[in-house]
Amino acid sequence: MKENLIEAQYDISKKSRLHKFYERNKLLIYSVLFLLIFSLVSINFYYSKVQNKRVLLAENFVQSKILLGKGEKEEALNLLKEIVYSNDSTYSTLSFYLILNQKLMDNNFEILEIFDHILKNNKFENETRNLLIYKKLLVSSNFAEESIILEIAKPVLNSENYWKPHALLLIGNYYFSKKQFIKAKDFYSQILLINNLDSYLYNEAKLQLSFIGNE
Fold first, then answer.
1. Which contacts qualify for 180-187: CB closer than 8 Å, 24 or more apart?
2. Residue 124 CB neighbour total at 10 angstroms
3. How confident is the model at residue 3 (pLDDT cuts 50, 70, 90)?
4. Helix, strand, or coil here: 93?
5. 3-state class (DSSP) for residue 197
């Protein structure tokens, strides 16, 4: 009997402490609960919005390919540009590659601006970013001045990555076409110093160096 009384008094005391704690901190408790619920709703809304956006981008990308199939290039280009500027790392890049592959734009400087926009406003893994820079280098090598070409190439040339030997070969060929053989030789020679090099790149560099040797 005595033990039951002590246990009952303990329960009353514990409930009393909990009640006092609740009364003192109920504003804080409600605030925390509100913030938690608000955060969960906001996160759900955000991911739902992102998902809906990606579904729309996917549909527009497919629609642009349908338009191209019908020969409606201007409409396809406008739709692809909208996707590019949506700043979705996947669909922006895919859409821009489609623009380039279909030769839908002939303004080289606008093309370079789009490269810059995509690189600035999207997050990519290193090799994907280097591929984009290499493609930008490839486009610029057809019309840009030497200083611009070298500036574009810097991020790829200044690190060890898959696209570095490709960029070296491209710049070497650029100088070779300009008959600046000393500069071309420097870039071709750098290719031969790279370990585990693709045989195609190695053979191309050696072939170009042999042509320079015969000049």
1. 181/212, 181/215, 184/208, 184/212, 185/209, 185/212
2. 15
3. very low
4. helix
5. coil
Q: Tokens representing 17?
A: 């402490």
- Name 86's Cβ contacts closer than 8 Å, sequence gap at least 6: 53, 57, 92
Angle CA 99–100–103, to nearest 5: 85
According to the model, what pLDDT value does residue 2 have? 42
What is the 8-class DSSP label of residue 170?
A: H
Give the separation between CA 205 and CA 213, rounded to whole angstroms: 12
As a whole number of angstroms, the distance between CA 209 and CA 212 comes to 5
- 112 close to 140: Cβ distance less than 8 angstroms: yes
CB proximity list for 14: less than 8 A, separation 6 or greater: none
Q: Token match 């570095």: residue?
A: 164
In angstroms, the CA 29 to CA 8 distance is 28
For the question of whether the overall pTM of this predicted structure is more than 0.85, the answer is no
Element (H, E) at 54: helix 2-69
Contacts of 99 (CB under 8 A, 6+ apart): 77, 80, 81, 84, 105, 114
